[in-house]
Fold these 3 entries.
Entry 1:
Amino acid sequence: QISVPKELVALMSANRDGEAPDPEDSAHKVYRFSQNVPIPCYLFALVVGALESRKIGPRTLVWAEKELVDKSAYEFSEAEAMLKTAEDLAGPYVWGQYDLLVLPPSFPYGGMENPCLTFVTPTLLAGDRSLSNVIAHEISHSWTGNLVTNKTWEHFWLNEGHTVYLERRIGGRLFGEQFRHFQALGGWRELQNTINTLGDKNPVTNLVINLDEVDPDVAYSSVPYEKGFALLFYLEQLLGGPDVFIGFLKAYVQTFAYKSIITEDWKKFLYSYFKDKVDILDKVDWNSWFHAPGMPPVKPTYDTTLSNACIALSQRWIQAKESDLGSFSSADLKEMSSHQLIEFLALLLLEAPLPLSHVQRMQEVYNFNAINNSEIRFRWLRLCIRSKWEAAIPLALKMATDQGRMKFTRPLFRDLYGFDKSRDLAVKTFLEHRASMHPVTSMLVGKDLKQDQ
């Protein structure tokens, strides 16, 4: 139980067990909590703040400061449908309540899967529920991560690869199998982007990494998420498709629930579950998947239906000469979803920077500066800075400091540091904001900007 000033609310990674006036202090209130499921220590969370809640499902309240609570309730209203789908895929939800808490903008991650109380970044509040895959991801952790846990952070892919796999299975159920493949292919490109940044010989791009004398926060990247997912997606295709593979995942969760395991335990169980397919499993290049840096040894097969429009438009821009710029118009985007806009920009970021005239024309016809969806804005501003558009410098600095989600803040600062016209301003801005940043964000951006003396 926790006593807090009565105008505030206390929440925990546990079920709420009532509140009462503090008998020892009339200005305080006591909040009680219970957690009957054993959890590893990294899932222990406690929050106190001026919070309000809205009920968005039979087992779900969304908590936020009053300015954001209604917007949050709208944004995350699919939570119950996602929970039901996850239960169908992975087994019963054992935690009781599933609440969501919107944190202040300095929160460094997209979400954190604290049991009974997922923490999320306010950068998910796009206004159209288009970034709700992060909610599906955190919900999925209720099985993979929170029930079956990696024994050490060297095996972090067991938590994250399986969780991304489940997240995308939920997306497939709710929005169709083509959408699942579209998200999966987007993940492959995200992995390419990460490996381009880190270097394809860098040992932190191994799926199973060696953390001797390495800070896990420094090694953190999309690799355990997306290389882990790619392995599971590849195995799904190898072993008989989604319906066959979900049987394995369900049995895996049942077998190892309430335990911490390593990659070898997972692999042994895979072989015992698919004992009639050992010949197929023996053909997998396990050593490269687990212990080699860079991209995986095999690329899974993807349905590209929803990606094709993104690829076609990005290629038009890449191949366009100055004289072709008049052929672009706002009609190019008419049929595209916000997910497809993200993918269009992500594809351009994998290529050499576009000429400045191209990004200026892109702003003229598409007006990306007016879009507040964080995933679109982030990629658009990176594209502008890479093409050395000076007018984008203040916009990129603003986004890098208005919020502190490392997925956005680190690459924006890195790109600004890499552009001679903005390097000094990037360092100056970082030093001014450092004190109000989350300590992990501050440490990592400091390293990126060579300020950590």
Note: Residues 148-291 form a domain with the Neutral Protease; domain 2 fold (CATH 1.10.390.10).
Entry 2:
Amino acid sequence: MNKTKRLWLLLGGVLFVTFFILGWFGKEVYRQVPPLPESIQSTTGQTLFTKEDILNGQQVWQSIGGQQVGSIWGHGAYQAPDWSADWLHRELLNLQDIISKREYQKPFASLQGVEQAAVQAYLKEEMRTNTYDSAKGLITVSPERAQAIEKNIQYYMGLFGDDLAFVKLRDAYALHRSAVPDETRRRSLATFFFWTSWAASTDRPGMTSTYTNNWPHEPLIDNNPTTANLIWSFISVIILLAGVGALIWYKAFTDKEEDLPTPASTDPFNTMPITPSMRAAGKYALIVIALFVAQSVVGGVLAHFTVEGNAFYGFPLSDYLPYSIVRTWHIQLAMFWIATAFLAAGLFLAPAVGGKEPRFQRLGVNVLFGALLLVVTGSLVGEWLSIKQVFSLNIGYMFGHQGYEYIDLGRFWQILLFVGLILWLVLMLRGMWPALQEKGYRRQLVLLFAGASAAIGLFYGAGFFYSARTHLTIMEYWRWWVVHLWVEGFFEVFATVSLAFIFTNLGLIRAVSATRAVLLSSAIYLFGGIPGTFHHLYFSGTPISITAVGATFSAFEVVPLALIGFEAWDTYQKTQLASWMARYKWPIRFFIGVAFWNLVGAGIFGFLINPPISLYYMQGLNTTPVHAHAALFGVYGQLSLGLVLLVLRLLYPQGVWNDKALAISFWAMNGGLVLMIVLSLLPVGLAQTWASIEHGLWYARSADFLQLPIMAKLRWMRMVGDLVFYVGVSALAYFVVRLVVSRSRKANAG
């Protein structure tokens, strides 16, 4: 058996084993979810609310943007509180005073040390004792806790309504006035917050940790890291060190360099015929840039909301564009333009791979383009209408806002997007089909290309395994199938195969070497990446086994990133072998930028929050957007831009490029990203982490902490990085538009 066959078996084995692990432990997620009670009653027999109220509240939460308005169990936006932690702390303070007045006839703050200790002991016993009766589907609470709950409900009804007492707090949270105008909906929303808090403060049956593994940190009831949390954190660090060491050993002692092919005297792509469908794919580049510019502008507005609440330099912007819709668009536009870049690269390369233009391929590319514009426009408008509370709850979920980060678009638009991805997959396979009939290593490379395309097209469908009223834990399980596997998994494989095909055709690497390299890198990455999905679910109502699997395997995700810089440098050196390769300087520069941010953004900043003990204190803090910005733009954004530039280079082979504009774009965007992180996001996140460890998550996310003068100054400092970044975006937009327009004019004149 030759080396290539062994690598195919390795990749197949990795896919089988890792998806088996993901499915097997997924069964445990289903089996051990926090219970949704039929009703919550006081010990006096009073019904406080029902399962229907909780599920209605979940839908209300979805309709106003869900994870774009604060967070639940740490997942979501960072401006408003984490509602689970916030509810829990407020309920504890309410209950403290109620018990103190009952036992000592004075508020808790006026009690002496022994008296306070007695109240605290009662508080812990009351909150952590699991009173859920599975036979009756009933949770019972004391009359005193029922009072504390009702007091919390009134607080949230005022906050999400138009009560003037909350004007200042709404500004601090960037929460627009009358976010939930309907009183019944507001009450249901509060009951949903209660249930998420109950799961975070109540011990699992037979255990001394809560359904969320003692998250969030809350000293008042001894919500502290579990022993398992600490142990699996240590193990993940050891695995990381061992893995990096093994990979370096392999690279140094066993990975032998093969003789490179002699580059052609002229650019091989100069003789490549540009088919009608390939030309039609070129207009996708303009959409990528338009969406990128729009996302960047929206991001600037979003950042401003964090320092001026509901206003934009005094203008009441939230009356028209609330923070929740701006953040929704910022994230969704990022997903759209990055995905569009990958679609464009695939549509352009498919006929080049196959060597033949299938019938009606151009029509398919144009139909997909129109469908893309429809989904983008329709989903953005629908989300705005949902957040403005125009829709009923069910209609809002279908055509408005699903409420879940990265999958915000309404279910109808999600279905249309999936149909579009399937159409893209069909177009890809049609274009590649002639090459799949060939023999040799090129065929194997094409098989990998087709497999990665199929994964991108099909795995988005994981988002249909939950609905509006699906249990929150189960929803998170499937959501991360989409976000982690689709965005962080198979996009990576697709990009690796695409670049391998391009470099093979440029004569920089032999087909056999490219095939083996792609097989090995895909196997290594997916081995950690697929089960590593669970690192998003440590504290989402999952059992401790999920923490063990997530911490162990996600440590392997970082391992291949340790050597990715060497590969980038090697690629750059290969481009010096022939003078004509300078034509591809800027796409390759962006790919080198990907290598840097892969190590820093995905590797260092990713692992910063990856061990369970780190994430325990950092979940839901600004350390997460540090990783998100560095990885999403630094890696996938620059990869997408590099692919777009490569397509434009091949589409207009005779075009003279404006090197100055591209240099400004490359260095300003990378420099701006560095400044955003170093001057603002990272310091804010680390300060929040300190507050979370010392006082609890509720304080790290509170208005009292985030509105401190030093924190406000740090958030203002982000503007420096933003402005530099905008210079880069503007330069890139100028370059692309000028190139496309000038070439179109020349073509028309000819």
Note: The chain has three domains: 40-224, 227-256+530-657+664-721, 274-493.
Entry 3:
Amino acid sequence: MLTEMAETERKYEAARGAVLPELGDLPGVAAESGPDEQHLVAEYFDTPDLRLIRSGITLRRRRGGDDAGWHLKLPAGGDTRIEIRAPLGRAARRVPAELAALVRACARGEELQPVARIETARLRRRLLDESGSSLAEVVADAVAAQALGDATALSSWHEVEVELTGGDSRLLRAADQRLREAGFRPAGHQAKLERALADRLPPAGRSPALTAESPAADVVLAYVAAQLTALTTLDPMVRRGVPDSVHRMRVATRRLRSTLKSFGMVLRRDQAGQAVAELKWLGEVLGAARDAEVLAARLETAVAELPPELVIGPVQAIIRGHMAPIEAAAGTEVLAALDSGRYLELLRQLDMLLAEPPLGPQADQPGGIVLPKAVRRTRRRLHRRMRRAWAAPAGADRDIALHEARKAAKDARYAAEAASPVLARKTARRLISSARDVQSVLGDHHDAVVARGVLRDLGVQAHLAGENSFTFGILHERERVRAMALEEPAGRAWHRVGRHGG
């Protein structure tokens, strides 16, 4: 059984014997308790090449203290990490399967093994509010670490942590100011493991800024790397059912696929073709789950918006009965895909593409010259498809053509995003925005088309079952009207792409 919580904390360097300042008068603090003494022993697990900690993830089995057990910590932005806990169990060297699954993508399926042992002698104080509830814990740690592996390294240090347990960011900022005034300085790490393995980790630093003079390959590969990181980061969120995570992972997948297709003169399409095909597969699996979720919500909202006198029969129940198994099956397919060897192989292909990119003939040329041309090609493709859609007769033919135009709008948007470091800032912002508007309007149009088909089927089923299908007919007509009404704003958004294309 896993438990999950958000952990917000800051760490500070501390000299041996350093005295903490008075913290009992910080905002909202009425009293302090402690100090309590704790002895903590933790064994940290990672891949041989430290993939987890290099991604800001730690996985440990810790004994001692109030929370003995397995702890997986995932970055959540800023000072916050998501901590997922599992019981201590008897197997000291085998990571619980539920936790191993959450880091499978990051680890690329590699074996998780002990990489460090850290002992901490802790003095803990609690900051309490007027009711005696804990607002924050302030701990002074004496740390002794042993790096494991082919070469064993020992290290020791002292540090202070402030972790919110009920207080807010105002308290954290006030504690930060007080500690800095007392001479404590922010630690250069968020996890103790980073310091214990410092000699095996790459030095922290920023990538060089990309400019119009940067090689085109550097610009495109930076975007690919960012989307691969997003894909890997979202994997455990999808597995945990975090809202909107399937959608975000689908978008990262689409961005990767679109980029590998749009810049063929920079990255050779023939050598990236396998990754493109596999990204299409993953996108379709994620898309089925996302589309089912969106459609179910759309239909239920549509019924709720009708006047009660127009809802005849158990319409909501019929919709839920139809959509629930579809959503469940799609969710199961997503998890099966993420657990598959095919998915791991895709991630490895993308790793290899970044490590040994299949450079095209324009890869080394300045991005400011090469990439705007590629962006314009995607924009011209969008224009061709939109003109084709308007030339198609109203009805199914135009619906299909507009859906194809929507795909072209995505490609234009993602190409502009990838090339944005070398485009004029205003041009990039306006092109991305206008292409996104086309994509959004045509997405709503496509949702209405799909909803009509489902509503027709449900109406027919209700009729054949001897039930009243009146409400399904009303909903079908409303979706038809919505789709028609969206064609005009789609045209306006398309013309803005033409104006802002550069």
Note: The chain has 14 helices and nine strands.
